[in-house]
Amino acid sequence: MPSSMLASSPRSARPPSRLSVVLSKSVLAPLSPTRLRRRGSLVPGKTAASAPARSSVWDEKVSLDPLARLEPLAVPLAPALVDPWATDDCDREFAQLLDRRGVAENLRPRLQALDRQVKLKLIANDERAAAQAADYTRRYEASQASVAPPRSRHGRMASMSSLSLRSGGPRASTPPARLVIPEEFLEVLRAGADLERVNELRRALRNEPLSWTVDFLVKGGVDVLVERTLGVVRIEWRDEADDRLLHALLLCFKALGTSTIGLNYITAVSPGLFSTLLALLFSDKQPAMFGTRHLIVHMVYLHLRSAPRDRREDRARLVLAYLEDPTPPADKRLPDFIEVSHTPRPYKKWYSEWSHVVRDVFWVFMQNTNRIRVVRQAPDFAFECEREPVRTGALAGCVELDALEYLATHVDLMNVLLASLPTALQRNDLRQRFKDSGFERLVTRYLRASGTHYTRNLQLALETLVSLGHHDGWDVDNMAHGLRRMDPAGPRKGYARAPSAPPGPGPRSIRFVLPELDFGLSSVLADRTERE
After folding, report:
1. What is the pTM of this model?
2. Is 37 exposed, middle or buried (0-12, 13-18, 19+ CB in 10 A)?
3. 179 or 418: which carries more pLDDT confidence?
4. Same-domain status, 432 and 460
5. pLDDT digits over 89-121, tens only?
6. Does 51 share its domain with 102?
7. In this structure, are 52 and 90 located in the same domain?
8. Both ends of the chain: CA-CA distance in Å?
9. Residues 109 and 27 both lie in one domain
10. Are residues 468 and 377 in the same domain?
11. Helical ranges in 257-307 per DSSP H
């Protein structure tokens, strides 16, 4: 632009900036007569000749800017999202969306505090996904009724997962299609699913609506998952691929645990499932990864935490029976006079699992100055406490973080077991059994000294453990503050020497006195003397 024009123009008449020109052209272009004529639709009552001409000054100012000469993209802008409902209608529809998705109760207040525009978009996306799922279900049912499954070389019927529902024929060179509806997953799981299919099922159980999960469970999905899980556990020599498959199957159970109906189905199969998984956890064939072991303990923890108040004690007693050491057979028992002198350790194998984790990552437990807070907490707090989310980023997947999260879940399980008992006397009796097994010594020396730069969940779990014990009158001073140091036997540098004891008799002053033997002869001699 010429400098003379800039000098003669007042400040109020300064031409718009590049960004304002481009935005004004892109926003107002769909409404301008020039753009309407270019698209072939004129403004009613006006022709191309009668269209008003632009100002020469404006044309000169815009033409001098190279960005103004660029034509805006011919992409129609989305209109501003206008809320078609009132506030009550939007909240009601969003609450129904949360019910369909099976969102947990502790997450609903955060989601209900979202902006209304975000809620409307979530509702629209949910309706679109429901329509697509219904369309896919209709096409799947139609394909089952009209298309006969081809036969393989061995004469067996090919599964529907190898069919292309869009083309109606088998897929030879392309990868298998993505499974969508529960029937496909059940068919593939019964035939022996691989890791990829199990991961697809886990994503579906977490992301699909609650009605999808209900349909999967009603058609026997949890029984198929239990059968596949127990089949992997019973393998004599498992490799890394088997451990990854077991991890994916346990993630499917964790996804089912996000809904109430899923927890109910897991409770129905818990006796056989939990006993087998905990026996695997305490055996020599346990999974190598801390994450897989964490999922096993987390399933048991969710099973106890979701129990109704009148069923807590029964479930806790059953889980304690799984955690307790089995009674040795009669031929391997110690003699009675030796067994009486031994202190019983009923949860020795559970304690060994804790100590093995501490041994594997011993460098984490070096903060000896840590102190655990003692706060006033009722036993029900163990069922309501929240934990920090698992960190992501540089520490994600490191062995220290996995080990501390695994130990934190064990401590949470212990807290729930203690809080499930109705009276303080029963809880203290269980604490005494835990102390005899060695848990209190392990917490005092190692777990209390865990570093907090990885995660604080272990410290929070220990805080709940100590606070609940203090509520019931249990001595928690050692667990909270560490062992008290005993006074040293000898003097230390910088300390005053203790006064010495008065000198005692030397070795020459000691006299040895022989014992006197009395055979009762003095009375006999006295009688004889009298007779004489």
Report:
1. 0.66
2. middle
3. 418
4. yes
5. 788 888 888 877 777 676 777 788 888 888 888
6. no
7. no
8. 161
9. no
10. yes
11. 260-268, 270-281, 290-305
